[in-house]
Amino acid sequence: MTDYSHTEDTGRVERWYLRFNAYHRFLHALVIVSFLGLVLTGMPLKYSQVPWAQTLAGYLGGIGTAGYIHRVFGAITWLYLILHLSFAAYYVVRLRDEPLWKWFLGPNSMVPWTKDLKDVIGHVLWFLGMGERPKFDRFTYWEKFDYFAVFWGVGIIGFSGLTLWFPVFFARFMPGWTFNVAIILHSDEALLAAGFIFTIHFFNTHLRPEKFPLDHVIFTGKISEEEFKHERPLEYERMRDQGKLDSLESTPPTPTSLAWARVLGFIAYGAGLVMILFIVYSALKELH
Amino acid sequence: MMRKVIFITIVLLAVASSALAMSTSDCFDCHSDDTLTKDVRDREISLFVDEEIYSRSIHGDLDCSDCHEDLAGLEDEHEEELNPVYCSNCHDDAAEEMEAAEHPATCSDCHGKHDILPRSDSRSSVYDLNVPKTCSGCHSPDIRDQYESGMHGKVLIRSGMIFSAVCNDCHGDHDIRGADDPASLVARANINSTCATCHRGVVDIYKESIHGEIFADSPEDAPVCTSCHSAHETERAMDDKFLITVVKRCSSCHEEMGYTFSKNYHGQVTGLGYTRAAQCSDCHGAHDILSINDPASMVHPDNLVATCGKCHSGANKNFTLYMPHADYHDAQNYPMLYYVYLSMVILLTGTFAFFGIHTLLWFIRAYLESLRNRSGGTH
């Protein structure tokens, strides 16, 4: 196994590659900001019986103001969904350089396929010491899960949220009890999302020993050659064999951009970890 | 001739009385000394009477002996200990009421002694503006604080409106009885009519409501004015402080409804201090509250469009199918909500169980790998 954390000691000049372009990073920044804002302003309502909810609502300027902020971040969520779908459509129509079905089931698509199932099994076997670590491509199965979890989450939470935002309008087409359903879906799906992002996603992406304490790639967009080879060997080899590796090569991240990545990253997951503590505390308190 | 006789008689009587008995001016020979005291059970009691204040009091034209009867006919000094003064000799109605009500105060506790003024005089201890202070001479200052923080107290003190209710307006002037005495003005069965002295219109509306109907049959089973508005801390019904606590007040009887309300959107935001969302009275009414089965009820299905529409302008029949008291834990009454909730629980449990184990195993493996690498293991 390659330990890329020691590559600087070798004295060799390290190559860097671009994994996420500015548009990807911008959209992910919108996701971070809006998601943290939504959880922060939504939590007091979900746990309105627990004393800290009142305190938090007070800090946010009262639950009325919190609700207003919540709707602003909700609108940003719809915005990034639309921006992403537009990009996806543009990619499929203009940027795609392989046949549609091949792209759809291939490594540049988010669609899970048989390789992902094999990877899940292989990865778990590796956890158990019963095999080699699977070789991953551009998107791993847990990244695809994250992607579709957000997609599904934004769909469920976003649509139920809209009906609760404009109930009089939606009552033209839907009976009022669907708002009762919408509240359950909105609230529990949000719990799933927050719980997942603030624990599983944080661990898979940042907190596991190879990445600890922070993987800056989503902020700088850049991945080192060693990490590229280790984490995504199939993509690396494919690009090398196709002679496309050079087109991905980029300058190393500057110390300033790394510092920014750390500051923003730590703020985001510090906020997330505090919120998950509140959620766990409240959920336990509600059980009693 | 006749006039002359009367004049001489008066003069003679005056001379005779001044010669034989003590007059008020004789009393002040001693009692105008403000250092004059006596000891009663080791306590120094002032015997000073301010002649000017006395002469201005409502009793200023009376002689001392009119009240201190044992002074009558005395020529010079009197016994150190005088008999008590019996106000009832003149004020028999008030005294009878006091005695029947068993209010332990004496006349002077409220009205004063030598300084008694008519209640219409703003310096009187029983003038409306001064009543709360006078009563709190014996009663706990907490009650006065509660009163002053309430609407009646604010109107009286802050706005200076003497028509606001003060203690005796609700508790009676002399007929002051404990709330557990059925004859008391503030006994449960009498509260409504006591409030109706001023709030007549509201009590008339209440009488037509479901609460009023129940009250007519058995006062113990229905809320009375103070059940919702409290006794001393009467709040303004449109104040946030009142609106926030409406739910608590209604749920003291309607416990189940209060619980289900607090589990739904209106209740959740109300619980967080937001008063613009609907509270009980916004949908059910307040003094005019009716049974849901009454066609005139605000929450009768035929009236829901109008009721919801008060806040949600444009609400239609569909809109009113929202269930503001739904409880998704209740599979019997809300099976669909229950199964939606159950599906979400399964989804959450499944996702967290799978990824929880996945993450734990991954962490152990990755940690072992990093240890191996650090100790110079195979690359």
Would you give an account of this structure?
- The complex is a heterodimer of chains A (288) and B (379).
- With 288 residues, chain A is an all-alpha fold.
- Chain A is built from 13 helices and three strands, in the order βαααααααααβαααβα.
- A three-stranded antiparallel sheet of chain A has the order 2-1-3.
- In chain A, α1 packs antiparallel against α3 (62-95) and α1 packs parallel to α13.
- Mean pLDDT of chain A is 92; it is low at 1-8.
- With 379 residues, chain B is an all-alpha fold.
- Helices cover 49% and strands 2% of the residues of chain B.
- Chain B has helices at 2-20, 24-31, 51-56, 64-67, 92-101, 107-111, 131-135, 141-149, 151-157, 167-171, 188-196, 200-208, 210-217, 225-229, 240-251, 255-262, 265-271, 280-284, 304-309, 335-374; strands at 37-40, 43-46.
- In chain B, strands 1-2 form a two-stranded antiparallel ribbon.
- The mean pLDDT of chain B is 89.
- Chains A and B meet through α2, α3, α5 and α8 of A and α17 and α20 of B.
Relevant terms:
heterodimer, A: 288 residues, mainly alpha, three-stranded antiparallel β-sheet, 13 helices, 3 strands, 3% strand, B: 379 residues, two-stranded antiparallel sheet
Write the layout of secondary structure elements.
The complex is a heterodimer of chains A (288) and B (379).
Chain A: E1 16-18, H1 22-46, H2 51-59, H3 62-95, H4 100-105, H5 114-127, H6 141-165, H7 167-170, H8 177-207, H9 217-220, E2 222-224, H10 225-231, H11 233-242, H12 245-248, E3 249-250, H13 255-287
Antiparallel strand pairs in A: 1-2, 1-3
Chain B: H1 2-20, H2 24-31, E1 37-40, E2 43-46, H3 51-56, H4 64-67, H5 92-101, H6 107-111, H7 131-135, H8 141-149, H9 151-157, H10 167-171, H11 188-196, H12 200-208, H13 210-217, H14 225-229, H15 240-251, H16 255-262, H17 265-271, H18 280-284, H19 304-309, H20 335-374
Antiparallel strand pairs in B: 1-2
Helix pairs in contact in B: 8-9, 11-12, 12-13, 15-16, 16-17
